[in-house]
TrEMBL record:
Protein name, entry field: MTH1187 family thiamine-binding protein
Cellular component terms per the entry's GO annotation: cytosol
Region (Disordered): 81-102
Family that this chain belongs to: Belongs to the UPF0045 family.
InterPro entries in the record: MTH1187/YkoF-like, Thiamine_BP, UPF0045_domain
Tree of life domain: Bacteria
Domain spans labelled Thiamine-binding protein: 5-97
Species, as recorded: Fictibacillus marinisediminis
Amino acid sequence: MAIIDITVIPIGTESPSVSTYVAGIQRVLEKYNDQINYELTPMNTIVEGELDVLLNVIKEMHEAPFQEGIQRVATNIRIDDRRDKKSTMKSKLESVRNKMQG
């Protein structure tokens, strides 16, 4: 299972606010509810699932602002693909919290 940190940046919007575009991207993620887990943060979205599925999700997320009339989009992606053991968003956070306690 892989975890990706993705930020989709629509360029050339009419306003400094991009929440409308973020909402459109979140609707893309909802289509994959049965295949991925995801979490919206104030600065990005974190998604976990099988890498092949995630790569398709990334493409759809990147395309979403174009569907709303944006002519330029910059997308930043960071992929954590650990194969020696199962790693999830939840397990990574639990590991850090456990180390903080003891």
